[in-house]
Amino acid sequence: xxxxxxxxxxxxxxxxxxxxxxxxxxxxxxxxxxxxxxxxxxxxxxxxxxxxxxxxxxxxxxxxxxxxxxxxxxxxxxxxxxxxxxxxxxxxxxxxxxxxxxxxxxxxxxxxxxxxxxxxxxxxxxxxxxxxxxxxxxxxxxxxxxxxxxxxxxxxxxxxxxxxxxxxxxxxxxxxxxxxxxxxxxxxxxxxxxxxxxxxxxxxxxxxxxxxxxxxxxxxxxxxxxxxxxxxxxxxxxxxxxxxxxxxxxxxxxxxxxxxxxxxxxxxxxxxxxxxxxxxxxxxxxxxxxxxxxxxxxxxxxxxxxxxxxxxxxxxxxxxxxxxxxxxxxxxxxxxxxxxxxxxxxxxxxxxxxxx
Length: 356
What we know:
Strand order of the largest sheet: 1-2-3-4-5-6
């Protein structure tokens, strides 16, 4: 069972048990300690997890953080816990105080279901007002669980998390802002777009007119995107069924030993279907092929090695997409988080394929 499946199993278990869990202490025992175990920590080893970490503030003594994850004997993550029935927003100030007086670079506020991760991106040793990551372990996205995995004992890297935390924090804030504007567009938001396409004077009457147009446009974009993904899913399922109907060739005793070591994974096939769906807008899908090797998974036009569209490297600890859009078709390697990131390079992939 991989990390994502383990977190999902824990989330399902919490949903089935939560009505029997009535106190903060019970939440810690039933929900939070199992969560820390899923992150690879030995909750019974005080060298890894410390309970009731002292966090005295000035003359105020006896202040303690519920848990701290230790690294090299020092707290790297402090965790403040509440009952699963409590709202977390009213307890942010408490974690803020603890963060200021400890050496930890990350603070977590949780009720055993929702986990909010904070750091000090805006001012050193001062916890940011907004979390850079928030995850509900009973309902999460692949991106959220991939970010959570960085806190696993096996992968924990302070600098790597801090680097991604900045992008993640502001990306989340922008997403929330755009969601809000899509529902109830402000005058400034509408005015910004109106000025790009309207040549006249932007009066209040014009803004009122364009407010409904902007809302309608966003709704259409969302609808079109959803339909595109659904169509791609149907195409993928159809192609999978077609592949399943093709009989496998027997491998001869004197076959190539290298070829026998190659295993095409589900993730590689899914990436092929994604790229095929992107390219079929401009190119006959029958001209798009893949070739799997031990070092990469290649996408070709006309099954020709001289017409590489891209290569994917998905079997290591990090994933990469190689593009061939430079001078002399030199390979340009880009790190990706998931294969869905391939969609960001759709235009380049189409241009490369058409260039042949």
